[in-house]
Every structure is written in C-alpha cells, then in structure tokens.
Specification:
By secondary structure, the protein is α/β, with parallel strands linked by helices. The protein has five helices and five strands. It has a single domain, classed as YqgF/RNase H-like domain (Nucleotidyltransferase, domain 5, 2-Layer Sandwich), CATH 3.30.420.140.
C-alpha cells in the first residue's frame, strides 16, 4: 500500500483551453477535473490546483505528428511547460497525446451524450486530459 497520498495531474494544453485531470490519491484512476481558458492567469490557476490537490507529478500532452515527430504546437507546449516549471518544482513529464481527442469523442458517444454536448470543446479537452492521465497511470503498472 502506498502511504504517499499525493496525486498526478494531467494537462491537455491548447491555445484556447487547457484540459485538466487528476488521479486519485492511490494513483490508480484518473478523472477529469476542469477546463480553464488559456490566458496570462492560467499558470497561476494551475499552481493553485496543484496545491489544492497535493499534486506531486505533472504530465503534459505533447501533440506529436502521426510520424512521431514534434508538431508546430509542440513548441507552444514546450513554452508552456517552461513557464509552469518556473512556478513549481514538481517533475513535469511530456507524454504522447496523439488520438486523445478522438478517444474523448468516442467516450462521449459511448456515454450516450447527445450531439450538442459532444460539441462542447471544453468538455472534450477535459475528457482528453483524463484519457491521457489514465493511459499514463496504466503504463506505470506495467
């Protein structure tokens, strides 16, 4: 049994919105937390959530191309990670986020969400961050 009850946070960074998810204290299950608007206050809001949820590790989705090479957006993610790392001393890991949005849409369909709710991009980003986190948590078990 793990006595460390800290959590892992996943961040799905986007130029308009940032999807956030956190693990349970035992680091078994990831769940969507919220979506925030990307602006000059985003980092401070994330730092506040890191404290509130006792986050000990952060993963950030890196939007790689299908070939596995970095995309144009990867540079924006790297800039975001640099700014976040200047505000916190928590380990930040970049993870491949290819297909998380596609999986989020599929999950929304599987949950029976109607078309209007599935078009809510903020909800898609939140679910994508949860999928990203769950994949990371599952890979740690192997």
């Amino acid at each position: 049994m793990n006595s460390d009850l800290s959590r892992i946070m996943a961040i799905d960074f986007g130029s308009h919105r940032i999807g956030l998810a956190v693990s349970d204290p035992m680091k078994i299950i990831g769940q969507g937390l919220k979506t925030i608007v990307t602006n000059e206050k985003s980092i401070d809001e994330i730092v506040s959530l890191i404290s509130e949820y006792s986050v000990s590790e952060i993963i950030v989705g890196n939007p790689l191309l299908l070939s596995g090479k970095e995309s144009a957006t990867s540079e924006d993610v790297a800039h975001f990670v640099k700014k976040l790392s200047e505000k916190t001393n928590i380990n930040i890991v970049l993870v491949d986020e290819r297909f998380t949005s596609v999986l989020a849409h599929k999950a929304m369909i599987d949950m029976g969400m109607n078309k209007k709710k599935r078009q809510n991009k903020a909800k898609v980003d939140e679910i994508a961050s949860a999928i990203l986190l769950q994949g990371y948590l599952d890979s740690r078990k192997r």
